[in-house]
Amino acid sequence: MAVRTRSIRRSLGALAVALALAGGARAAGHAGEVDPRIGTGGDGHTFPGATVPFGMIQLSPDTAMPDFKHAYKWAAGYQYGDPTILGFSHTHFSGSGHSDLGDVLVMPVAGEAKLEPGEADKPGSGYRSRFSHASEVARAGYYAVTLEDYGVRAELTAGRRVGWHRYTFPAGKDAHVLLDLRPSIYDYPGKVLWASLRVHADGTVTGCRTTRGWAPGRELCFAMRFSQPMVSRELYDRESDAPYKGFRGPGNQPQDRDAQNGRALLGVFDFGALKQPLVAKVAISTVSEANAVANLDADGRGFDFDARRAEATAAWNKALASIDVDAPATQRTQFYTALYHAMLSPTLSMDSNGEYRGPDHQVHKADGFSFYSTWSLWDVYRAQQPLMVLLRPDLSSDFVNSLVAAREASPFGILPVWAYQGLETWCMIGYHAVPVIADAYVKGVRGFDAGRALEAMVASATYGPYGDLADYMKLGYVPIDKEPEGASKTLEYAYDDWSLAQMAKAMGQTKTAAEFERRAGNWKNAWDAATGFMRARKSDGKFREPFDPAAAGYGSDYTEGNAFQYSWYVPQDVAGLIGAMGGDARFVQKLDAVFDARVDPAHFKNVEDITGLIGWYAHGNEPSHHLAYLYDYAGAAWKTQERLKRIMDSQYAPRPDGLAGNDDLGQMSAWYVFTALGFYPVAPGSDQYAIGRPFLPRAVLHLAGGRTFTVTAAPLDDAHPYVGSVTLDGKPLDRVYLRHGEIVQGGELHFTMQAQPNREWGRAAQARPLSMSAYP
């Protein structure tokens, strides 16, 4: 659209501010304390749009969908610093370091409808529009913005399977809705293998597209309805047309008004000059168009946008009510936004009739559970899934059932590694669905077949072709001359083995428990006493030379890390690691050296995921997340408290660039939630949490069975950063760990804070969290 006059812009700006103020009024409950724009700048990779807890729909603005060579910062489709909006699509990852999705892109247009996105720095060159953050409203379950080039106010909300749009067009302008099936996050020419688009007699628009993206051969279907009848419509196949991602074509003439098939489909739906807002509702399905229509019928009745927004807000208020905190407003925003981000994934990936797409690309039907996918397991097993075990054990049983069902549909017979919409990507390392299941079972979650789950865990841990598990089982380590990143894989496999052993032990499967407890000790095969680091060995048993402990990333011994970060990855046996490093004092000295080192961030310029540096410690990447808590295991709990204070102060902030690195489907945020409460699951699969220090004056956890667990701290301020003493239900707590059962049975944990460290609290051997080498 042509550039508007200054007076029109002035009026539009005033309207946008008024709408923002009206829409921004705080809703009752914690939903109103969430700011979804936290993490949308920098490398947080979160999205600001509308969704509900663990919902199938993530309806959000996309500011860019660049080609795959430049896609990293747009992994969620939106970057806070961008000046234009391309449109609103219905599927997004929250905080991933890789991406895909951005399905079913919709853009409201007033006046002339252009058929190409255009350039962000050339206003009017395409259908994208400029916008201002002053006109944005982002809340849990709701997003609104004014598209300046059209004068259109766009509002979004969501249900579990349906995304809702409300567009208010300027008076006297023809209203159009453009539907583009070409763009995709992490885009490249030819990514769309095939698509279909058709308009039914009742005005319902349906379609599907198949892409060869991160999950090859992914199919997604949709169904869309409008609150007003169309005046006309045009459907285009632009594959041979001018300039979209290399496509060439016959021009702008529509090929058909009712149905179209091809690889570059576009629809423009015309509504004339409207006297009231236009509401559109969109349902998706990984199975079929028919299922998308059924989802729309089941979950998308009527066109009452405000009622649907109220339902989304209510869903978030209910979810976030699992924890009530007393804290200053800014800290409450940080806390509830972190809890919100921790409740976005995994996502519902099942239709209203129970059908879902499995990793075999076939259609399956859930029996007695809801199927969830979007599993960044290398990340979320650490804190995000343990947080759900604590707060939502009912959902944890669905999550475990989903993992087991995916394994049983897998052509390889193993649990998911990094899956979404039911399909596997094989991204990252380890078999970390195993600790997710083990942690749930050990902490009392039921509602799934434990025998089938253990069978799935053993199958994953013994599948030789995966990540050279064959050599790992034979040699006790992953040889670097046969498999890249052998040190990291050896260490992560050993931890996963230990978690499997814990579940087998809890089930009375002593033979399986003994076998995997033995394998859990394989971490020792990566330990090099001569250098004091974990290293990769070759098939002949020798460590690979030359060795540089600062070397990181693919081609090194490590996955997204280096020796300074990965040499601490023995969560199952920290006591054993302390012994290997020469005892408590040497361990603490070496850990101090990690945090206190002077490291130029440019050192990791070619490893984009390593961010949030404090010395060699990299809070923006998961292998570092447990490090600050390791002092607890060496009798220096006061140092854990000291390090946590610096991390919380420097790595989180209530602003768009307020996350130090990828939120990774809620892991970064779950770390914040646990740490703010005062404890953390260093070794999921254990029933213990290492105690750090609280960052909230008061927090009340509302747990299953109507029980509450209250955490209080006083005096809590910057002048009193250390724990002086702790009581549990009024009795002194001399140990630096909590048991899961102590929390879920309800009670009160109180911290007395002080100005100077208490170097004696938690120093005794029996006061420390348990490890393999310290079992009674």
TrEMBL record:
- Would the keyword GTP-binding turn up in this protein's UniProt record? no
The record's annotation in SUPFAM superfamilies points to: Six-hairpin glycosidases
Q: Which GO terms describe its biological process?
A: carbohydrate metabolic process; glycoprotein catabolic process
Q: Which residues form the Glycosyl hydrolase family 92 N-terminal domain?
A: 34-285
Secretion signal span: 1-27
The residue ranges of the Glycosyl hydrolase family domain are 291-754
Question: What's a single GO MF annotation on this record?
Answer: peptide-N4-(N-acetyl-beta-glucosaminyl)asparagine amidase activity
Q: Which InterPro entries match?
A: 6-hairpin_glycosidase_sf (IPR008928), GH-type_carb-bd (IPR014718), GH92_a_mannosidase_put (IPR005887), GH92_N (IPR041371), Glyco_hydro_92 (IPR012939), PNGase (IPR050883)
| Keyword Signal (UniProt) | yes
What keywords appear on the UniProt entry? Signal
Highest taxon listed in the record's lineage: Bacteria
Q: Name one GO cellular component term.
A: cytosol
Q: What protein name is recorded for this chain? A: Putative alpha-1,2-mannosidase
Q: Which organism is it from?
A: Fulvimonas soli
